[in-house]
Design a protein that fits this description.
Elements: H1 15-24, H2 28-42, H3 44-55, E1 58-59, H4 60-67, H5 71-83, E2 87-92, E3 95-100, H6 103-117
Antiparallel strand pairs: 1-3, 2-3
Organism: Deinococcus radiotolerans
Pfam families: HTH_5 (PF01022)
InterPro entries: ArsR-like_HTH, ArsR_HTH, HTH_ArsR_DNA-bd_dom, Metal_resp_trans_reg, WH-like_DNA-bd_sf, WH_DNA-bd_sf
Length: about 120
């Protein structure tokens, strides 16, 4: 049985509030892009990988070890994270090192984890 949420009386309408809320909405394109980005972060393995990268830059082998997955699986996940511009990389010889793309990703992770731990 679900509890009913409070609602306005039948004739209760706030057209100014609705107009203000609608004006504040992001574009459909922005909503879809942000939704895809949040889905990419929502996977537990990818979240572990991003958290590890928040601590320091890591090569694929070390990142796979930290995340507890194979190098092949790590590479697959990193392709998705790169596609969403969540991670960047640099090559040193034949070794590829990954890092968080920018401060936005760092803040997103910090805020999500802090919010999840609040009670």
């Amino acid at each position: 049985m679900t509890a009913e949420l409070p609602r306005c009386d039948e004739d209760c309408r706030h057209p100014d509030a609705v107009a203000n809320a609608r004006a504040a909405l992001p574009t459909q394109q922005a909503v879809e892009a942000a939704s895809a980005l949040l889905k990419a972060v929502a996977d537990p393995t990818r979240l572990r990988m991003l958290s590890a990268l928040a601590a320091q830059e890591l090569c694929v082998h070390d990142l796979a070890t930290v995340a507890g997955i194979s190098e092949s699986a790590a590479s697959h996940q990193l392709r998705l994270l790169r596609a969403h511009r969540l991670v960047g990389y640099r090559k040193e010889g034949r070794t590829v090192y990954y890092h968080l793309a920018d401060q936005h990703v760092t803040l997103l992770l910090e805020n999500a984890l802090e919010h999840a731990q609040e009670r």
